[in-house]
Design a protein that fits this description.
The chain contains six helices and 17 strands. The protein is of the alpha+beta class. It has a single domain, classed as Carbon-nitrogen hydrolase (Nitrilase/N-carbamoyl-D-aminoacid amidohydrolase), CATH 3.60.110.10. Strands 1, 2, 3, 4, 5, 6 and 17 form a seven-stranded mixed β-sheet that branches. A six-stranded mixed β-sheet has the order 9-10-11-12-15-16, covered by helices on one side. It starts with a strand and ends with a helix.
């Protein structure tokens, strides 16, 4: 296992042209690989914003096949942001991320657990559950880069999910997002840093930016270390940010602040722990 390596988060302004979006993805992946990134994280809805049926895909399918080919070509790990996945049980689609190894193999698949059903401070209403089927599983996976965990956008507001991943051994949590400017300006950074600090883990958050159908995306993608330091931060334009992940630093941080060990499981437990 590599103790230290370079990671990248890609900030995009995806729109409803899948071909154009994937052309941008290819260019970003190639640039990140040239810079030496071992792991690259794409944002939520990276191949298209539309909820029209023709934008949804199976997994494996055209978009994941494309990402698998790029991972193999460039010899990098890719977290494929998220795409709309066809769900055989319902007409609603899943919001799904995949992790792809340098072999071109999909080694993990995670579907967003929490639907964003809110009225934003500016009065805009968003109800994802009308078109999105919530996922059902918490996913962590062992890799040569460490143990990775997965969340998507609104999942960030649910610390239970991140704590359970940490208790399962997750060291790096990957967070593709399409976080809004209305809430992001106040909540994005403190939530990201809190999740990293609480669990002594790295957080790689790749966000969308620009004007979307219902809101403006906040940008400000970040890579945060287990102490809560912001190692890299994007602005409001599409770009790639880079930082080094150091698993020895992670282990030292968890020794200095042993909050995972100091929990009072005789007093409280999360449901998954009790099972």
């Amino acid at each position: 296992m590599a103790n230290s390596y370079l990671v990248a988060a890609i900030q995009m302004d995806s729109q409803d042209n899948k071909e154009n979006n994937l052309q941008m993805v290819a260019a970003y992946l190639e640039e990140a690989a040239k810079k030496g990134a071992a792991l690259v994280v794409l944002p939520e809805v990276m191949n298209g914003l539309s909820e029209e049926p023709e934008f949804a895909e199976t997994i494996p399918g055209p978009t994941t096949d494309f990402l698998c080919a790029k991972a193999c070509e460039l010899q990098i790990w890719i977290c494929g942001g998220s795409i709309s996945e066809i769900c055989s049980q319902t007409e609603r689609t899943l919001n799904t991320s995949v992790l792809i190894a340098p072999t071109g193999e999909i080694v993990a698949k995670y579907s967003k657990l929490h639907n964003f059903d809110v009225t934003l401070p500016d009065g805009t209403g968003v109800c994802e559950s009308l078109k999105k089927q919530a996922g059902k599983n918490i996913i962590t996976v062992n890799t040569p880069l460490g143990k990775l965990g997965f969340a998507i956008c609104y999942d960030l507001r649910f610390p239970e999910l991140f704590r359970l991943m940490a208790l399962e051994g997750a060291e790096i949590i990957l967070l593709p997002a399409n976080f809004t400017q209305a809430t992001g300006k106040d909540h994005w950074e403190p939530l990201l840093r809190a999740r990293a600090i609480e669990n002594g883990c790295y957080l790689i958050a790749a966000n969308q930016t620009g004007q979307k159908q219902q809101f403006t995306a906040y940008g400000n993608s970040m890579i945060i270390d287990p102490w809560g330091n912001i190692l890299a931060r994007a602005g409001e334009k599409p770009e790639i940010i880079y930082a080094a992940v150091d698993l020895e630093l992670l282990a030292e941080t968890r020794q200095r602040i042993p909050s995972l060990q100091n929990r009072r499981t005789d007093i409280y437990q999360l449901n998954k722990e009790a099972n």
